[in-house]
Specification:
With 705 residues, the chain is an alpha+beta fold. It has 23 helices and 25 strands. The strands form five sheets. A five-stranded antiparallel beta sheet has the order 2-1-5-4-3, sandwiched between helices. Helix 18 packs across helix 19 and helix 19 packs across helix 20.
């Protein structure tokens, strides 16, 4: 016996069927005199989210299973305990949500001992939400019918079998220039005041209904009490008794003056619309609420390639046979209650068989009451604009020199390739190729020759790759190869070897002019070395720099052991190649004193520091060797020389009577190899106005060896 049933027997309810109570649709709760819960059924558990174990022995006020309504339940229980309980309706916001209210009819039964003491309080709550809602609807409907009857704006006249009026409501006196007393007892024509149009037709319809039982409708125009003209639409129906025999006729008239005016205005607007649409250059169409054509202007019919009688009354799918699926979807969306839709529809023009692209705006057309009456579509030929846009996108993602995809294309397309590899649980290789010695070749053959060589490299490498491989030029002499569906690194090694071997063949190509061409490749593998294209390219870049340091013409795979030093070196080399390099340079001066009979300042030594926005303050012993290897030492040396000359000139112009102050500048061996140092010094002196004796050139011993 489970705890629930034990509690059932313990509190003295063995005479009731526990299973029946547990499956009751009502919420059932048993409490002791202290308002402590002794039993709750499963419906209670489901409705409140409180289990039996969580409730047993705890006070109702503590648990608050009915939220804010718990206080009312406690009050009802207290009154029942005192002998004054009644059945009450309770509004319960489930989970505290006012939008999720339930109405419960709560009943409390008190079990007492022979001496009248309370033994048990039994509370049952029946969900009457639906019942109360139906009751409210009935009350609202009755009130609405009473309101309509008391305030009907219609004119109502009842006729006997002889065609004479037997009743007329008072509303007609406010609508027409007549009175009820002049209508009752008269035939329709006899009661019609002067100046009313349609009276003869009205009388005919009344007698037709009396004779045949067929209903009829007629419009009557005439003066109103204020001297204006009004139009009434009158519906005449036969009245029958319980046996179905005609016993009279009932005429119900409604003032439709505004409707008639609106109808006339709508007809005028429709004429204006058609006049504009028929002569417009745009393609214009209308669909009804069932998404069928109700109008198509001549330009639209040309697009459809069919005459109007084969278009009107049909859907876009029926007319276009699937050629206008985007427009069809847009119209369906608007008809279903959605807002305006702007779509680009591609289709084959039936006149010349060429693809066209139209921008089509589909907007809903509503009545003043908000009822959808049609969907208006306006289309414009944007074929040339789209082609121009697509060409711009192609250009933006293409390297103009080689015709290869560029870095933008890499970062646009690579995520989809990596996602596909992840779904298929495959690996993807990223190979970063950097040409060895390209700068020297470029200096030899010139920039035009270098461009020819880069194009030759692109063609040579592309020939070694599978069409599905993504081959990208990052910029300069760096290329990226993205290879999907890789089963092992051996596959990548084979591709890398083919690429490097093919570069060796370029030495015999005319574009190389006999220069030796090679390359270094760094490899990173998805997902081991990274899961984003940015990370993979960065890791392949680190591996590539390691390949260059290890002797060039090699393939290196990324591994964590390459460490931060390789990444740091690669970052410094990239930063040295940035256009704004000199903007981040700082020159400090270290004073030089001559010690003799006194201590005298004779000059200073120029010290170079590099404060990079991302790398921070980089020390000379870290970046100078890299600058010497990359050739950036030329720009650095010229900048230091210019700053030193300008500083020396400024010092000595401000000290005309004193001994000249000199600034010592260190020169690297590579500066003499890569630059004309004499010309650089002359330019710095000329530009700054510095005298030659104010600059001291310090040369390392390696230059003399």
């Amino acid at each position: 016996m489970d705890a629930r049933r034990e509690a059932w027997h313990r509190i003295g309810l063995a005479h009731l069927t526990a299973d029946w109570m547990d499956t009751s649709a009502d919420l059932v709760v048993c409490l002791d005199d202290d308002m402590r819960l002794q039993y709750v059924n499963r419906t209670f558990e489901t409705a409140t989210g409180l289990s039996f174990d969580a409730c047993a022995g705890r006070r109702l006020g503590e648990l608050r299973p009915f939220g804010a309504a718990t206080a009312r339940v406690l009050t009802q229980l207290s009154r029942a305990r005192d002998g004054t309980a009644e059945v009450e309706d309770l509004v319960w916001s489930v989970d505290g949500d006012p939008g999720h209210e339930r109405q419960l009819q709560v009943h409390v039964r008190v079990e007492r001992a022979a001496d009248g003491a309370v033994e048990l309080l039994l509370l049952s709550a029946h969900d009457v939400t639906h019942v109360r809602a139906v009751e409210r609807m009935l009350l609202d409907s009755r009130a609405e019918l009473r309101t309509l009857a008391d305030n009907s704006p219609d004119n109502i006249i009842r006729y006997g079998m002889d065609g004479r009026a037997t009743y007329c409501n008072q509303e007609i006196e406010r609508r027409l220039d007549t009175t009820a007393s002049t209508i009752v007892g008269e035939l329709p024509l006899g009661a019609t005041p002067p100046g009313v149009g349609g009276a003869e037709e009205y009388e005919r319809v009344v007698f037709e209904a009396l004779r045949t039982g067929r209903p009829g409708r007629v419009e009557i125009t005439g003066p109103d009490p204020d001297g204006g003209q009004v139009t009434h639409s009158v519906l005449v129906r036969a009245e029958r008794d319980a046996a179905g025999q005609i016993v009279g006729a009932l005429a119900i008239g409604r003032d439709v003056t505004d409707l008639v005016v609106a109808r006339q205005e709508a007809a005028e607007r429709e004429r204006e619309f058609r006049s504009l649409a028929e002569n417009a250059g745009d393609r214009i169409a209308r669909w009804d609420p069932s998404a069928r054509y109700v109008y198509a202007n001549p330009r639209m019919l040309e697009v459809l390639g069919k005459p109007a009688d084969q278009v009107l009354g049909r859907t876009s799918a029926e007319v276009g046979e699937g050629r206008f699926d985007d427009v069809e979807a847009a119209v369906t969306h608007v008809v279903a209650g959605g807002g305006a839709q702007l779509v680009e529809q591609r289709f084959v023009d039936p006149q010349d068989g060429l693809e066209r692209i139209h921008e089509v705006l589909c907007v809903p057309e509503h009545t003043d009451e908000g009822r959808l009456v049609s969907v208006l579509g306006v289309g414009r030929d944007i074929t040339e604009a789209v082609h121009a846009r697509e060409e711009l996108v192609r250009i933006a993602s293409t390297d103009l020199l080689t015709g290869l995809p560029n870095s933008q294309a890499l970062f646009d397309r690579a995520p989809a390739i990596l996602d596909a590899a992840q779904r298929r649980e495959q690996r993807t290789g990223v190979l970063l190729l950097d040409l060895d010695g390209f700068k020297a070749v470029n200096d030899t053959v010139g920039h035009a020759g270098g461009d020819l060589l880069l194009r030759a490299v692109a063609e040579q490498v592309r020939a070694q790759l599978h069409p599905s491989d993504l081959f990208v030029r990052l910029g300069g002499d760096e290329f990226v190869i993205l290879i999907g569906g890789v089963s092992s690194t051996d596959d990548l090694a084979a591709v890398a070897d083919k690429v490097l071997s093919s570069l060796n063949e370029l030495s015999e190509a005319p574009a190389s002019r006999g220069a030796s061409i090679g390359g270094s490749i760094g490899v990173a593998v998805f997902p081991e070395d990274g899961v984003t294209v940015e990370t993979l390219v960065a890791h392949a870049d680190i591996a590539m720099y390691q390949a260059k340091r290890a002797g060039r013409g090699r393939v290196e795979y990324f591994r964590p052991a390459l460490g931060a030093a390789v990444a740091r070196r690669a970052a410094i080399e990239r930063a040295l190649a940035e256009p704004g390099l000199v903007d981040d340079l700082v020159m400090y001066v270290q004073p030089v004193f001559r010690i003799g009979t006194d201590v005298r300042l004779v000059g200073a030594e120029a010290l170079l520091r590099w404060n990079h926005p991302r790398l921070g303050m980089v020390q000379p012993d870290e970046f100078i060797p890299i600058a010497e290897e990359s050739g950036a030492i030329v720009a650095l040396g010229r900048w230091v020389l210019q700053e030193a000359a300008a500083t020396a000139a400024r010092w000595n112009r401000g000290n005309p009577q004193g001994a000249p102050l000199t600034i010592a500048v260190n020169f690297s061996t590579r500066q003499f190899v890569l630059d004309d140092v004499a010309v650089a010094i002359d330019e710095a002196l000329t530009r700054s106005g510095c005298l030659p004796e104010w600059i001291v050139a310090e040369i390392t011993e390696s230059l003399l060896l």
